Amino acid sequence: MKKSSLMLAVLCFALSMTLTGCFQSPADMISEKVGEGLAEKAIESATGGKVDIDSSKGTMNIKSENGNTAISTGGDVKLPDNFPKILVVVDDAKITVATDMGDTSSVNYLTDMSKADLIEKYKSTLVGDGWKKTMETVTDTISMLTFEKDKQTVSGLISDNQNSDNPQKSMVNITLTTKN
């Protein structure tokens, strides 16, 4: 599956989650299924894969000749099965999105920890676990860190939370890539 097709699929999924949550009539269930069906068809057309969206769970699965992709959003998001727990270094992480694309997984979460404290926590935790820091860029708005260990690369983006709907201080995206 091409990266651009996957990005389109993620955008369609986000749109379907938004649209299916907007219907507030007795026909909610029918509207939800119609929204899911329309989004599934659009994503299948873009990716060439078989798509299953369950907006009540906030999940989307795409099965294609290039492998499987699973995306979870919403209130009760879990880490992907192949995502090491050590890569979420805070106890108060509120996971908002989890994506599993086989050799690449990513997790977005919110936390009350400050950006500066998160950077130090990631460096000490991962280096202490045998990861080698290969890149670090810190700006006023976003910080990027990359670590490598064995055949795995971890990339982290850490920024201040600008979303007033969520009171947490920082937003974090951690992406794990495994080379075969």
In short:
The chain has 180 residues and is of the alpha+beta class. The protein contains three helices and nine strands; from the N terminus they run ααβββββαββββ.
The CA-CA distance between the termini, in Å, is 17 Å
Number of helices: 3
Low-confidence stretches: 11-30
Beta-strand proportion: 35-45%
Please write the string of helix (H) and strand (E) elements.
HHEEEEEHEEEE
The number of distinct β-strands equals 9
Radius of gyration: 18 Å
Biggest β-sheet: count, sense, barrel? 9 strands, antiparallel
Structural class: alpha+beta
Across the major sheet, the strand order is 1-2-3-4-5-9-8-7-6
The outline comes out as globular
Query: Averaging pLDDT over every residue, what do you get?
Result: 76
Helix content class: 25-40%
SSE layout:
Blueprint: H1 3-20, H2 28-47, E1 50-54, E2 59-64, E3 67-73, E4 94-100, E5 104-111, H3 115-128, E6 132-138, E7 142-149, E8 152-160, E9 170-178
Antiparallel strand pairs: 1-2, 2-3, 3-4, 4-5, 5-9, 6-7, 7-8, 8-9
Helix pairs in contact: 1-2
Description:
By secondary structure, the protein is α+β, with helices and mostly antiparallel strands. The chain has helices spanning 3-20, 28-47, 115-128; strands at residues 50-54, 59-64, 67-73, 94-100, 104-111, 132-138, 142-149, 152-160, 170-178. The protein has a nine-stranded antiparallel beta sheet with strand order 1-2-3-4-5-9-8-7-6. A hairpin with a 4-residue loop joins strand 1 (50-54) and strand 2 (59-64). Helix 1 (3-20) packs antiparallel against helix 2 (28-47). The longest helix has 20 residues, at 28-47. It is globular and about 45 Å long.
